[in-house]
Amino acid sequence: MILELPRGRRLDLSSPLVMGVLNITPDSFSDGGRHIGIAAALAAAHRMLDEGATIIDIGGESTRPGADQVSVTEECDRVLPLIERLCAERDCIVSIDTMKPAVMQAACRAGAAIINDVNALQAPGAIEIAAAEQAAVCLMHMQGEPRTMQLAPTYCSVIDEVSSFLESRVAACVVQGIPAARLLIDPGFGFGKTLAHNLELLAHLPRFQLLRLPILVGMSRKGMLGEITGRAVAERTAAGLAAATLAVCNGASLVRTHDVAATVDALKVADAVRRAAQALSAPS
After folding, report:
1. Residue 100 catalytic?
2. Annotated catalytic residue within 169, 182, 236, 256
3. Cβ distance 238 to 282 under 8 Å?
4. Active-site hit among 222, 231, 274, 275
5. Per-residue pLDDT tens for 77-96?
């Protein structure tokens, strides 16, 4: 599977790849405040690239439950200098993690190739900007909005509802001029879901392959892993590796993580096993 990027670039997803998380925020649930300042943020980005990340996902506004909103100006002030410097210093793929159309546009013009939107381009003008900038887009499902999404999430069928939502957003993008070759989908683990919902999504991830698009997953250090293991945020690496491996075995093409080096190794093993299974099942 190939993801089309701006300026004629193409990303080969025949093997699972890693997206490194880089939040330039004071209040993100795992790394809030750790990368404030261009020097610290750049060092973190270079480290993740050296560890094997293919994409650096840069965010300037926390989307954790209960997070406060920030203005367009403040979000741009946080992310744009980093995107510009990183793209100047490394030949890498940068993703902008934002819900705001104005930030999407500014980030793409600064060098970002992917828009990672937890709101699936539902904000007025978002689809038009993504189409105009020829960006690749990750469409994520979220029930509600970040400040209140975990208060009481309910579904009649989480698989059916998430799948139907993503299918409708893909259709909306295609109608507005964003080809399917530029789209990714993300079921949105932890975004308006209970632990039971998250586990059901992970177990039935192959259902989302019916949309014939690359699947991105993000479970790194999230509350679902804490509920299962009882461990604090900083102690969830092993649980995150297990979740990432299961996701890849169930069809995920991209894994978004804070723990890049360990995840790269885990996905190499999962991919090797997957390829061995394919070889055994191939007609002789």
Report:
1. no
2. 256
3. no
4. 222
5. 999 999 999 999 999 999 99
